[in-house]
Automatic annotation (TrEMBL):
Belongs to the Gfo/Idh/MocA family. InterPro entries: Gfo/Idh/MocA-like_OxRdtase_N, GFO_IDH_MocA-like_dom, NAD(P)-bd_dom_sf. It comes from Streptomyces humidus. Pfam families: GFO_IDH_MocA, GFO_IDH_MocA_C3. Residues 126-242 form the GFO/IDH/MocA-like oxidoreductase domain. Residues 1-118 form the Gfo/Idh/MocA-like oxidoreductase N-terminal domain. Keywords: Oxidoreductase. Gene3D superfamilies: Dihydrodipicolinate Reductase, domain 2, NAD(P)-binding Rossmann-like Domain. This is Oxidoreductase. One of its GO terms (molecular function) is nucleotide binding.
Length: 334
């Protein structure tokens, strides 16, 4: 099949490389406002270069991958749907929930499949954890812990346009908590601090946060995030039930150092960044998209799914700023 890619920055170029290596993908058509980025992709992957998103959609592509800046996501999703081209779009659907809801309303009734990029749903550990929960191996859950710690903060320009750490980083934890447990979040309480880069504070954001989520069955989920983890990229989940407890990410490349006498775990080189930690997951995610394009499976992560994680991020952002618990119902109604 022929796949178009819109946006060839860090993640777009990574997706181009991944798609190039998939047996189902025969050719790529790419576009980026920066001509040099498109030229580089053409040279590396034999991609055809188009001068605009419209030109990519008109180039006979079977599916489109949107890896452009967040502000462009709504318009590009709608353009692809109007053209009848299946869509893979990196999260989020839009910067603001009002825009995301508008996109959902605009595509309701369309048969064009849309997949939103939440790569942890395709990581082997998280897949196994979900299967264990669904099979009842843990009994009823009482506690979930989800962690995302970046090795260093993103650039100031990225932070200023990100919408904040809950919308940009923690949203992955929120999505995977919903997906693994099969439960919905009803209430949140969030705190945050700034102990590092001044530009994050100046942007009105926090660089380290904690959030307590109450799920609809009473399970408590604790989410920990930071832009500063000197040892590497740390993504983990613990699930504790009345019958058993399991962990995702508890492996030799875990960026954590034990000080217990005689303990040598973890013994591997720590994960450096998300592309290292989730290489296989990204490949599985884009393989799934080719199956969506082929019509052999439904979208594994819909706009509705992405918006649910977004509402949790909105609630945590409000909770952080107002120092109080916030229900999901409250932010939906605002």
């Amino acid at each position: 099949m022929r796949i178009g890619i819109l946006g060839l920055g860090r993640i777009g170029a990574f997706h181009a490389e991944t798609l190039f290596g998939l047996d189902a993908v025969e050719s790529l058509v790419v576009a980026d406002p920066f001509a040099e980025a498109a030229k580089t992709a053409a040279e590396r992957f034999g991609a055809e270069v188009a001068d605009s998103p419209e030109a990519v959609l008109a180039a006979g592509v079977d599916g489109i991958v949107i890896a452009a800046a967040t502000d462009a996501h709504p318009g590009l999703i709608l353009a692809a749907v109007e053209a009848g081209v299946p869509v893979f779009c990196e999260k989020p659907v839009a910067r603001a929930m009002t825009e995301g809801v508008a996109v959902l309303q605009a595509v309701q009734g369309s048969t064009v499949p849309i997949q939103i990029g939440y790569n942890r749903r395709f990581d082997a550990g998280f897949v196994a954890a979900r299967a264990a929960v669904r099979a009842g191996e843990l009994g009823e859950l009482h506690t979930v812990r989800s962690t995302t710690l970046d090795p260093a903060p993103p650039p100031a320009a990225y932070v200023a346009a990100s919408g904040g750490i809950f919308r940009d980083c923690s949203v992955h934890d929120f999505d995977i908590i919903r997906w693994v447990t099969g439960r919905e979040v009803t209430e949140v309480y969030a705190v945050g601090g700034n102990r590092g880069a001044d530009y994050i504070r100046e942007a009105g954001d926090a660089d380290t946060t904690g959030a307590v989520l109450t799920l609809d069955d009473g399970t408590i989920a604790v989410v920990s995030n930071s832009r500063h983890n000197a040892r590497g990229y740390d993504v983990r989940m613990e699930l504790h039930g009345f019958a058993d407890s399991i962990a995702v990410g508890l492996e030799d490349k875990l960026p954590l150092r034990s000080v217990e006498p005689g303990v040598t775990f973890p013994a591997g080189v720590p994960h450096d960044f998300f592309m290292d930690r989730f290489t296989a997951a990204y490949r599985a995610e884009l393989t799934a998209f080719t199956e969506v394009v082929a019509g052999s499976r439904p979208s594994p992560c819909t706009i509705e799914d992405a918006l649910e994680a977004g509402w949790i991020a909105e609630a945590c952002t409000l909770s952080l700023h107002e120092h109080r618990p916030v229900t999901i119902a409250e932010v939906r109604a605002s």
